[in-house]
């Protein structure tokens, strides 16, 4: 029988974060059959009814209060005894730092979701220890208060604290051969001819509202796959627009042949480190935060569109 706190809860957590027994087996350096056996035994012992659901996600359907307390205890053990196993994720836009913090700190876990609503749930329920994400769509009242960001002060988001890294203006990006790249009269009327690539507005409430006000998002398209190959396919017909920030733009230009348009969106966003307020005092968390801050400085120092908040 697996130890519940040392083996069982970590496996169940990782399956909710990364819904693949194969990927979890690689994470914990066990075989795939062991992962399946562990989560089934722990689920049965604790009465969790934990299983893969029709949407492809693993979830517990019973005894949530007990599971939450065990997750809290498991997180404390991880932070105090195994800081090398701290769990964090980046966003789809900051891939350059997700495997390069330092040899002493764990790389980011692979994300299987797009918007940040799920990120908040995983942090709140003690499955994730930290996340590095854009903050605009997490704020209760957007738009982003750039004056407060310039002071580089932490932002309170319920039980979470957002530690600012950089802020920037979102850009409209197209294929270099897109007709708008040669246009001299860019504006809502011109953009309306070329529907932008969208996603679920519930995942990006403030960004999508700002895009609609600019006339950039007339025909939202719900993305169901988040690989860059899918994004490239959606953009290669030269009708679609992508809204990106400077951190992702260099990658997009290299991989997807995309270039920014000379159009000021006025949409300001910022990358932040999200962490539970009650974890900030722990040395292991503080060291990981410092490593991520240093990685940002190192890997994005050449981007002139960033306004540093460190």
Please characterize this protein's 3D structure.
- The chain has helices at 4-17, 21-28, 32-46, 64-81, 117-124, 146-150, 188-191, 205-213, 228-235, 246-256, 283-300, and strands spanning 50-52, 58-60, 88-89, 130-134, 155-157, 160-169, 171-174, 242-244, 259-260, 268-276, 307-308.
- It is α+β, with helices and mostly antiparallel strands and 310 residues long.
- It has three domains: 1-64, Arc Repressor Mutant, subunit A; 82-165 and 276-298, no CATH class; 171-266, D-Maltodextrin-Binding Protein, domain 2, CATH 3.40.190.10.
- The strands form three sheets. Strands 3, 4, 5, 6, 10 and 11 form a six-stranded mixed β-sheet that branches.
- It starts with a helix and ends with a strand.
- 35% of the residues are buried.
- Residues 222-226 have low confidence and may be disordered.
Average pLDDT, to the nearest integer?
85
The total count of strands amounts to 11
Helix count, DSSP H or I runs of 4 or more residues: 11
Biggest sheet, open or closed, and with what strands and sense?
A: 6 strands, mixed
Helices and strands, in N-to-C order? HHHEEHEHEHEEEHHHEHEEHE
How would you sum up the global shape? globular
Which properties best describe this structure?
3 domains; 11 helices; 38% helix; six-stranded mixed β-sheet; Arc Repressor Mutant, subunit A
Topology:
Layout: H1 4-17, H2 21-28, H3 32-46, E1 50-52, E2 58-60, H4 64-81, E3 88-89, H5 117-124, E4 130-134, H6 146-150, E5 155-157, E6 160-169, E7 171-174, H7 188-191, H8 205-213, H9 228-235, E8 242-244, H10 246-256, E9 259-260, E10 268-276, H11 283-300, E11 307-308
Parallel strand pairs: 3-4
Antiparallel strand pairs: 1-2, 4-10, 5-6, 6-10, 6-11, 7-8, 7-9
Helix pairs in contact: 1-3, 1-4, 2-3
């Amino acid at each position: 029988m697996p130890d519940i706190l040392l083996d069982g809860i970590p496996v169940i957590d990782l399956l909710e974060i990364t819904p693949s027994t194969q990927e979890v087996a690689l994470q914990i350096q066990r075989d795939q059959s062991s992962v399946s056996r562990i989560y089934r035994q722990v689920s049965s012992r604790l009465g969790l009814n934990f299983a893969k659901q029709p949407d492809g996600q693993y979830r517990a359907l019973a005894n949530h209060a007990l599971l939450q307390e065990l997750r809290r205890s498991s997180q404390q053990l991880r932070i105090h005894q195994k800081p090398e196993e701290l769990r964090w994720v980046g966003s789809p836009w900051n891939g350059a730092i997700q495997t390069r913090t330092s040899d002493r700190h764990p790389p980011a876990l692979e994300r299987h979701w797009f918007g940040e609503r799920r990120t908040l749930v995983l942090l709140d329920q003690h499955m994730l220890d930290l996340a590095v994400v854009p903050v605009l769509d997490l704020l209760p009242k957007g738009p982003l208060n750039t004056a407060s960001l310039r002071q580089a002060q932490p932002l309170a988001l319920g039980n979470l604290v957002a530690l600012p890294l950089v802020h920037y203006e979102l850009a409209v990006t197209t294929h270099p051969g897109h007709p708008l790249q040669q246009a001299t009269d860019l504006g809502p009327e011109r953009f309306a001819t070329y529907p932008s690539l969208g996603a679920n507005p519930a995942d990006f409430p403030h960004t999508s509202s700002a895009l609609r006000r600019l006339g950039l998002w007339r025909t939202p398209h719900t993305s169901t796959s988040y690989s860059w190959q899918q994004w490239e396919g959606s953009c290669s017909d030269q009708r679609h627009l992508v809204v990106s920030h400077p951190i992702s733009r260099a990658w997009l230009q290299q991989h997807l042949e995309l270039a920014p348009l000379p159009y000021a969106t006025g949409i300001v966003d910022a990358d932040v480190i999200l962490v539970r307020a009650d974890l900030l005092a722990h040395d292991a968390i503080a060291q990981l935060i410092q490593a991520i801050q240093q990685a940002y400085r190192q890997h994005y120092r050449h981007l002139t569109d960033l306004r540093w908040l460190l």
